[in-house]
Amino acid sequence: MEDNSKATAAEGERINNFLEDIIEKDLSEGKYQAIQTRFPPEPNGYLHIGHAKSICLNFGLAKKYGGKTNLRFDDTNPVKEDTEYVDSIKEDIKWLGFEWANEFYASDYFDQLYEWAVVLIKKGLAYVDDQTQEEIRKGRGTVTEPGVNSPYRDRSVEENLRLFQEMKDGKYPDGAKVLRAKIDMAHPNMLFRDPLMYRIIHADHHRTGSKWCIYPMYDYAHGQCDSIGHITHSICTLEFDVHRPLYDWFIQALDIFPSHQYEFARLNLTYTVMSKRKLLELVKNGYVDGWDDPRMPTICGIRRRGYTPESIRMFAEKVGVAKRDNIIDLSLMEWCLRQDLNARSNRYMAVLDPVKLVIDNWEDGKVEYFDAPLNPADPEGPSRKVVFAKELYIERADFMEDAPKKYFRLKPDGEVRLKYTYIVKCVSFKKDADGNVTEIHCTYDPTSKPGAGERRSVKGTIHWVAVDHAKEIEARIFDTLFTEEQMGAIPEGVDYKNYLNPKSLVITKAYAEPALEEDKSGIAVQFERVGYFFKDPKNGAYNKVTGLKDTFKM
Ligand code: ATP
Ligand code: MG
């Protein structure tokens, strides 16, 4: 990660990113009274974590400099767009904690865009072309060869006006004609070789219905929509830098509010695909359980998994704003989540791979309750009661028959503290025919009760639950959806689905202390010594959001 805001000054002060520098300069020079940004999703899929980065950036900058952010749906392609996506996008932005000043749709401006196209025709800067898509493509030339003018390039203004009107009126089938800007067929920037402005698509639009059968192209619509909204800083991803001169060209040709475009590197994550097209394919073909599958990099997916908006905003801030493409380590996102959850989440004990432990010198049927803090960072804060009894479950991995010296959990003749309660000593254990441990027997030391005067200490502490009181839960343990770290580096022609991880979801039965059922926090809880788990709002299972250990090296 270079060239981003993660860098900090010696005193720990955050350094401006390049967009903040530009905005501060614009404001100090009085170029604008206030800044205005926009987030412009195309409603053709659910938002992913890359969009979250863009949302945090656009809304974050406006917030920082007292400006406003509009939500503008870039709905210029009726074929792929849907209100289902519009609704989900709004929900996701709100969940991330942002409020838009205005909700706009590019389709709100179809009339204005049409009028402006007429203006350009009248200025001799646009013409109707009858060539086929293939002819237009060929005529454009290549990077090394200039293009050739269309035979329809020199139509009169009157003819162009009439044909464009007829295109709008539905007189021609799809593909019969297009409207093109008349710029320069030999321009070194291929996008300037008479770019398409309008194409004919006889398809109903999710908002304008059947009113239109011509739809504006991205390059013709985007800048003009920014301009209508008086967007001062139109921020987009790097691949649009070659489009910027064209963005400026249309604005200048129409002499309208001068919005400016700035580009930053799109967010890429290890072990992740982020293109909506691929995510849609995973959903449609049933590789995942919908857009909100907890393994998906969609905002609704990570929300269902148990990520918090706070952690995503922290992540966006840490990633910073780069000007060169890079790939961010997924573990940084998890690191941010842990920072947030470690501070706020309630603790409970749960055993995921149980083996029974019996306390031989504990009376049958006797139970004892212990107070345990919900968050150890706040020992005087709210607590829960944990119930202790003769028969417990502990984690299979917390007992070892032939333990090495440095193994401080339970072993034959060894001692360990059962968290919040007594020290127990292993006196015997049973195994089945396959050699698996089936039952461990211990004795407890009554003098080791916490808070009862002299406190003996042992090196190991393990978690546990009482067999008769524990609640059975379903735990869902996730691994990355893909096995390949650099999903972006998969060669062309190789199917990215070959890298789907067959072990990305493991479902297991687990046992949790009873207090878990009363948890009201609404965020993930920590199963002590195991990881963070979030109760799936759809199926009630406990999703493992992330483990406790950091794999990210700051
Ligand atoms: P995809 O390529 O994943 O389908 P898109 O760019 O087509 O995404 P849009 O709905 O057009 O999706 O994107 C809305 C905004 O989010 C745009 O400004 C776009 O630049 C930004 N954006 C999309 N993907 C990323 C990403 N990976 N990182 C940062 N910003 C992104
Ligand atoms: Mg797009």
Q: Would you identify the CATH architecture of the largest domain?
A: 3-Layer(aba) Sandwich
- Give the CATH class of the largest domain: Alpha Beta
What's the Cα radius of gyration?
A: 31 Å
**What kind of sheet is the major sheet?**
7 strands, mixed
Total number of distinct structural domains: 3
Question: Care to describe what's here?
Answer:
This protein is α/β, with parallel strands linked by helices and 554 residues long. It folds into three domains: 34-264, HUPs (Rossmann fold), CATH 3.40.50.620; 269-346 and 473-546, Orthogonal Bundle (Glutamyl-tRNA Synthetase, domain 2); 350-463, Beta Barrel (Ribosomal Protein L25, Chain P). Helices cover 25% and strands 22% of the residues. The protein has twelve helices and 25 strands. The protein has helices at residues 18-28, 49-64, 83-96, 110-122, 133-139, 157-168, 218-228, 244-254, 276-284, 299-305, 309-319, 330-344, and strands at 36-39, 68-73, 103-105, 126-129, 178-181, 196-200, 214-216, 233-237, 260-264, 347-348, 350-351, 354-359, 368-373, 383-388, 391-395, 415-418, 423-431, 437-445, 461-462, 464-466, 471-478, 505-512, 525-527, 531-535, 542-546. Strands 10-23-24-25-21-22-11 form a seven-stranded mixed β-sheet. Strands 19-16-17-18-12-15-20 form a seven-stranded mixed β-sheet, with no helix packed on it. Strands 4-5-6-7 form a four-stranded antiparallel β-sheet. Helix 7 (218-228) crosses helix 8 and helix 11 packs across helix 12. It starts with 17 loop residues before the first helix and ends in an 8-residue tail after the last strand. Mean pLDDT is 94; it is low at 1-10. The structure holds adenosine-5'-triphosphate (ATP) and magnesium ion (MG). Residues 40-42, 50-51, 53-54, 74, 236-237, 266-267, 274-276 line the site of adenosine-5'-triphosphate.
